[in-house]
Amino acid sequence: MRHFFTILSHEIRMLLVNPSTYIAATLFLAVMGFFFTGILQDYSSAAQEVSPAQVFFEIFWFPVLFMIPLLTMKCLAEERRLGTIETLLTTPVTTAEVVIGKYAAAYLLYLLLWASTGGFFFILYRFAGDIHFMDTGPLIGGYTFIAVSGLLFVGIGVFASSLSRNQAVAGILSFTMLFGLIFGLGFLNDALWLDRAVLAPVKEMIEYAQVIEHREDFTRGVVDSRQLLFYLSGTVLALIFSILSVEAKLLHN
Amino acid sequence: MPETPLAIEVTDLVKSYAGMVAVNGISFTLKRGEILGFLGPNGAGKSTTMRILTGYLPATSGQVRICGVPVASQPDTVKRFIGYMPENNPLPEDMRVSEYLYFRGRLKEISRSKLGPRIDEVLELCDLKRVRHKIIGKLSKGFRQRVGIAEAILAEPPVIIMDEPTIGLDPHQILIVRDLIASLRGRMTVIISSHILPEIEMTCDRVLIINQGHIVAQGTPDELRRDILGHSIYQLELAGDPESLATALTKLEPTLKISESGEPDDEGFRTFTLTTAHDGDLGEELLRALKTPDFRLRALSRSHPTLENVFLAATRRSWDVKAEELPKN
């Protein structure tokens, strides 16, 4: 894994010098800030049952669906389109190091973007001067959820990028896969035809994989090891498939 | 690194893609410090062979050893021995030249302390000092090409493989690249492929011509000339009967043959190309022998075949072989 850090630092550097990163970050903060002020307006007009932090993390899917494809679509698709994957893989670097290095860089940037929303809560705390708004439990739970689920989401984005040499295709593919994971499974969970006894194991499986419910658990402070395992195993699977996909494309190009 | 005299050994290399055989039973060896020129028409299997040598593509069958290490079973070791510049020289668009070389150097396991001076050295060698802080995407083709070459020699590998390194360069830059490759002679084993045949002739110790996955000729440029084209070639402009010319020629020198004859022009003159295995100059004898009323000789010249002629002859010959084989199938 000695090349992992070389690739990671290179990727982070490339992300940091790339203007599109800053455009994406600005848009992200603008949209999230817009949501946050909306939430605060609700709170100023009427008393609410839950803390602002809990409501804020409810819209986690929005940045996930739009930011993850933008952050990850480039990573492997661009290398293949330019052909630089060939120069990369003819150095003593393994495919796994390349994929994991790129994954880690995208994940760190994703975390960094979310971490910057911590500023909203800090501003709220400074100007409201009321510790009441700063419900640390849901806040920590929410950010933990973002960090843990982000592992899988970014992994899916990297996998989508490994499937195509066209960035746009990779981006749409990862959007679709993430949409399927977050909303598709929720939709299936409500489907009546799955209630049949024969399909009970399938139904049970789908019930485990409810990302939206996981978010609720996390912000309530419930960290379920099954949910952690779901995200971790999903991440490992997505990365293994990405590595296989890169190698398979070499064999059949 | 194991000390074997052979830098590259290729035995019966076969690579087939979905029903199509790209490389079919290629074998060759290359000693340390030699420069090999790899010639062949487009789609002959040059790039595929080079990719297999670097361990980027797996071979269907056959064996490749780089410095005695088999590529198939120890690709990671072999990758440390090779500096590779792929076809079309892919480079990241949004990096600076020195940043790129630094990144590549780190990937090639050059220590941080050695990398800085080494980058200065290759920038100097490839005449890239002026653009070291420029963004690669904004460089001209010639500079990009030299960045690729700088990258290939960066880690001072024992074997350097470059797929068309001089493509898109102006004559001055070609000269620089040629000197650069020549300066590697003796220290590094180099394989280059090119379409610019005089290039190959000037820089390479040995030439390998492949066509449709087969080796059609190999040897030094001089050997190839002799093997493929015969020892000498003469061109005549002459009016007369080709058949009586052929008998007159055979009488003069048994190996002298007409290899090509053109169409007669208005005055009945045609251009004949003669080949012979005879080493000495036959010009005088030819003039004397053809000074009969049967023939009217207008011009005679002894031509010095270039590698281009060898290349065309070798690849055409293998096409002919291919065409003859076809009806049997």
Fold blueprint:
The complex is a heterodimer of chains A (253) and B (329).
Chain A: H1 2-17, H2 19-45, H3 52-58, H4 61-82, H5 84-89, H6 95-116, H7 118-128, H8 136-163, H9 167-190, H10 200-208, H11 211-219, H12 225-251
Chain B: E1 6-17, E2 20-31, E3 35-39, H1 46-54, E4 61-66, E5 69-70, H2 75-81, E6 82-85, H3 97-107, H4 112-125, H5 141-153, E7 159-163, H6 171-183, E8 189-193, H7 197-203, E9 206-211, E10 214-219, H8 221-229, E11 232-239, H9 242-252, E12 257-261, E13 269-276, H10 283-289, E14 296-303, H11 307-325
Parallel strand pairs in B: 3-8, 3-9, 6-7, 7-8
Antiparallel strand pairs in B: 1-2, 1-4, 4-5, 9-10, 11-13, 11-14, 12-13
Helix pairs in contact in B: 3-4, 8-11
What attributes characterize this protein structure?
heterodimer; A: 253 residues; mainly alpha; 82% helix; globular; B: 329 residues; alpha/beta; Rossmann fold; Alpha-Beta Plaits; 4-stranded antiparallel sheet; 11 helices; elongated; disordered C terminus
